[in-house]
Amino acid sequence: MPVLDGLSNTIARIGILSYDFPMAKNPEHRDLFPGALEIMILQSLRLKPMHGYALVKHIKQVSDNLLQVEEGSLYPALQRMLKEGWLESEAGTSAKGRPTRIYKLTEAGIRHLDQEVISFEKMFAGITRVLAVTTA
Amino acid sequence: MGWFQQLISRRRRYDDLAVSIQEHIAERAEELMEEGMPRRQAEQMARREFGNVALIEHRSREVWQWPAVESLIADLKLVFRRLGKSPGFAGTVLLTLAIGIGANTAVFSVVNGVLLKPLPYPESERIVALWLNAPGGGLSNFSKGLQLSSSMYFTFGDHNRSFQSIGVWTTGTANVTGLAQPEEVQCNLVSDGVLQTLGVPAVAGRWFSTADQDPHGAKAVMLSYGYWQRHFGGDRTVIGRSLQVDSETREIVGVMPRRFRVVDRDFDLLIPLALDRANQKLSGFGFNGIARLKPGVSLAQSSADVAHLIPVWMDSWSNGPGTNPHYYETWKILPAFRLLKEQVIGNVGGVLWVVMATVGLVMLIGCTNIVNLLLVRAESRQQELSIRAALGAGRLRIVRELLIESTTLSLIGGAIAVGVAYAGLRLLVHMGPADLPRLSEVSLDARSLGFTLLLSVFSGLLFGSIPAFKYARSTVSAALSGTNRTVSASRSRNRSRNVLVVAQVAMALVLLVSAVLMIRTFAALRNVDPGFSDAAHIQTMRIWIPDLLVSDPVTVTQMQNNIADHLARIPGVASVGFVGAVPMAGFDQNWDEIRVEGKNYEGGEPPMQLFNYVSPGYFSTMGTRLVAGRDFTWTDLYGLRPAVMVSENFARDSWGSPSAAVGKRVRQFSNMPWQEVIGVVQDVRQHGVDEKAPAIIYWPAMLNDPYTSHPTIAAPRYVTFAIRSDRAGSQTFLNQMQQAVWGVNGSLPLASVETMQQIYGQSMARTSFTLVMLAIAGSMALVLGIIGIYGVISYAVSQRTREIGIRLALGAHRTELRWMFVRSALALTGVGLAIGIATAATLMQGMKSLLFGISPLDPLTYIAVPLVLTAAAALASYLPARRAAAVDPVEALRAE
Lengths: 136, 896
Prior knowledge:
The complex is a heterodimer of chains A (136) and B (896). Chain A has a 3-stranded antiparallel β-sheet with strand order 2-5-4. Chain A is an alpha+beta fold. In chain A, 31% of the residues are buried. In chain A, strand 4 and strand 5 (99-105) form a beta hairpin. Helices cover 46% and strands 16% of the residues of chain A. Chain B is of the alpha+beta class and 896 residues long. Helices cover 52% and strands 14% of the residues of chain B. In chain B, strands 15, 16, 17, 18, 19, 20, 21 and 22 form an 8-stranded mixed β-sheet that branches. The longest helix of chain B has 37 residues, at 395-431. The chains are: A alpha+beta (136), B alpha+beta (896). The interface between A and B is medium-sized, with 27 and 29 residues.
């Protein structure tokens, strides 16, 4: 199917639940750490406010298909971030010209994002260092 | 963002979400179509890729919800719908709960107001009532202890180290003239220190100052709030005005706040005692002492402190020349201080806790019935619950739902109960013994409402948990099969209901036994000869002839004689007399020692006896039998003849028999002339029918004052008139009495106008109150018990219809069938009776103080009550049993 292509064996799934779509079931998919989805969304929306489908496509594209967002986790995540006040939604039009809701970052969202990125980079640095040690 | 904001923006959020998701899917579908997929397929594909749209939308919505609350609200809606469908069940339960919780709240309010709440004074737990004990003085025969004398007040006040403030007070009445009508009012006479000890500031004006207590200074008076409102309309300019009290002009210096009482006495006026330090004697033990402990000082310490002051007191004052002040050492006077609250409450605690326990038991019995009802209801839902359990509902979830139902019911019942409690409280206060202390402080306050809430929730959880845990546990197969063609209702089902019936019967037995014991106590009390006869036709009234109106004691007696004559002339009056204190009046006229001629009181002093002062004709008016000798005559009185009359028990103790007493001689103090005993009257229950009749020495109403060193005449100025007439109590009669008194002197108000029946009734008020409460509770318990047994048997019958049909078809007699059910009921009742009798036997020991003339293990009661209960159980089970026997076997076997 055109949705999945050759790099499927290294696709990381961002999400908790994998839904019952036979082609998508791939034993090599793995879940990312909690909070990963939120950072991705926030960063993407920082670049440019988008609606739901555009967001999914953006992440997929920019990550070169390494990351794929499950809709099943996207929308609950969006609602959570709305509740926390990191995003706000307003009426807008989709790529096809139809009415939809566009999600935008707020000031609080920007602050939260910065904090999370710092913390992520620290974690990443730590992992890198541990993995870099090849001799005992 | 605030939860309120969340709530109102929810609609918009849900809309946004729906639109987003729809658009997401539509975009994807279009993309697929652009790649060449047909429309239909593209849309399906897009949908499938998205996932379970409904589930995802639901989970996204959940972010904006509070799942716990929402599910609770959903449960509640369900509960209300189901209750609405069975109004009979809901109505019965609500009614039972409302009455049970309401009655308990009403009684709790009384218990709270009387026993639990602190007294309405600041830091009331530091206030002490100064009572003394004098075991060597022979007082314990008829008195609760020794009060203070005014000289003691001075000594203790000067030398104590434990009290911040100390004072003495006593009650009295006063005649207020100069206002619309002469009125006799209640007053409290207070010394310096009393108001300071109580610590309640005046609402207008000020307290008495030390200057106001000067016996030779200007005279002051304080008003009570009620008096202020009634006579001065709450006018603040009343401060500084004057009032005519007992023919003396007094200046109004202050007004006390609403509901303020000195300890437990209501008053209209406060008057300074104005004790004269120069003129004090050791004796005169008639004052209530009250003091506030210094911070850090305990009751025991203060007792020890004052114990050291008793010898100091004896050294500081004397009873007159020629008397020995250290005579009082024989009395062995010691402080018996109590916290003021204990003093006020006295022994009423016993009654109140009994009533509380009673009402609690009735509530339990009611709850038992409700549990039965709920069990039946849960059983009818068993299939539904089992299916839910099979589909994955957790046990806790089902239990939770059942508990929510029962708690909702009980909370609604509790809300209705508040209304019932309010009405019940008014009834209790109206019906309760008038001498119940602190009755005015009883009200439905926050604590009572808190109690109601607590009781509602607790009972809801209690009777909900039994069916809840029973049915949540049931295994699927047993439940889904139910009664069918091959299996009748199983034993285990009925076990909880049977246990409940046994409990009900036991509790009902306890209540009924206590009720019957109280009835017999009451009957026993009524059978006691009080010492007077035909109380309903004896009218009493009190007259106070103040010093300033008539100074000469002989004139006082003549005036009293005159009043008696005028009263005797009213049509319908058979006889008139007057006395210092009528029986059961609540106070004693005097007590002192009396020496019998010829008796040797080895080394010590003779024990003290009760004194009373009577006019000629008093005994015949009261119907007190003259056992030997004769009554006083007016010649005896005016001639100051040294004569006394004695009560029968004193005569027997001193001389062996009443007839032997006549002509013998007694005297009060060794330096006084002998008095001749001219008559003996029957024993009179002066302190109430439940106490032994005290020995009484009757002095004539005019006599030589025994307490002065030179001869003076004394006459009691405050006497109670007794009038025997068939018209006692009627309004016209009272008017005529008033006219008769005013015909003698227009400024003498009548006070305490009651018939002896009323006085007698009041003295029994505590017993009759307990009796009424227990009787009500007992009958309610009986009714509830009958309903309970009826319900259980009735249900058993309906469950076993098939079985009955089979038995009938196989040839059983209808009487056998009926007997089968009645027998099961009687078996249950029997067990309940056994448990109940054992419980009652133990509990009734606790009620001993309330019983009179009957043992808590009275065999007649313990036989009669179980018989009654058995009969009731038999009847209650017979009715449904008859229904069982009337079953048509064909119908029973056919239906499923």
